[in-house]
Write a structure and sequence with these properties.
Elements (H helix, E strand, L loop, with lengths): L12 H21 L6 H15 L9 H11 L2 H10 L5 H22 L7 H30 L1
């Protein structure tokens, strides 16, 4: 009698590509948030604010604190967007929970290990919101695409 073999089910090529891109995003994000502050982030935010004000956007809309929150949302949207593509069995709610846990870990690491950085509850909320936004957008987009394709 032949020995039973385990059939390995390989993920689809697009899933593998999404996982590679997700890993690259994690590496880039880790480098950005876990490196000592060199002032580059502050400079970029100030410059964006100056450009926005020069284009006559209300200062209240582009105040540095609001730009920082928007940047903290935007920096993790790609991770949230790639998550459902890389691991299709997970729901967007799972990605929201993972984002919260990850953001808490990053803020703890920044506060405890990097003397030039501070822990911030606002950053945790913004990062969680960004990843959740990315996951929801992709999940809704995939559902709409599948519905259109099948119907």
């Amino acid at each position: 009698m032949p020995e039973p073999t385990l059939t390995s089910r390989r993920p689809a090529r697009k899933v593998v590509m999404a996982r590679v891109l997700l890993a690259l995003c994690f590496v880039g994000l880790a480098a950005a948030v876990l490196s000592p502050s060199n002032g580059l982030q502050d400079h970029v935010l100030r410059r964006i604010g100056e450009i926005a004000v020069a284009r006559r956007l209300p200062f209240q809309l582009v105040a540095e604190q609001r730009l920082e929150i928007a940047a903290n949302v935007a920096i993790v949207v790609p991770i949230g967007a790639l998550g459902p593509l890389a691991f299709p069995r997970l729901r967007w709610q799972d990605w929201a929970a993972y984002a919260f846990i990850g953001a808490m870990g990053v803020e703890l690491a920044q506060g405890l290990l990097l003397p030039d950085r501070e822990m911030s509850a606002t950053d945790v909320v913004a990062n969680t919101l960004g990843a959740t936004l990315g996951a929801v957008l992709v999940t809704v987009g995939l559902r709409a695409f599948r519905a259109r394709r099948s119907g």
